[in-house]
Amino acid sequence: xxxxxxxxxxxxxxxxxxxxxxxxxxxxxxxxxxxxxxxxxxxxxxxxxxxxxxxxxxxxxxxxxxxxxxxxxxxxxxxxxxxxxxxxxxxxxxxxxxxxxxxxxxxxxxxxxxxxxxxxxxxxxxxxxxxxxxxxxxxxxxxxxxxxxxxxxxxxxxxxxxxxxxxxxxxxxxxxxxxx
Length: 180
Hints:
mainly alpha; rod-shaped; Arc Repressor Mutant, subunit A; 2 domains; single chain
């Protein structure tokens, strides 16, 4: 049997049909029109453009939030610095002794005489007296009586409610302290 060369066989076929089966070629598998190509590119690129637009909007919102937070922080820092400055001024005044702390006033002569009069009244009665009785004795109003009771020495006086009538408050001298 005789071996035939492929070049000889290809010489019989038309030129378009002659191919070298060993070599690879880059031929079009399918053909697209320009509008089909545009549509295909749009389908691929449009979702990416939409996502980029959303990301830009998100970044813009975050920039606005950051600017608002920076403004708030600046205001807070200014307020805190001002508070610190005022605190330092107050401390300096305290250290120099210019500022006095509020104290409860000492009982005046009138208050002291009322307390003494009430003490004598309770001693003579040998027990307690209602707030109303003390108010009549001293000639004072209920609010003045409450203020006077708040100034009493709690070691010598006690306040309690009357048995059977929780609305009436009674003042009496404590036992063992009634003659001091």
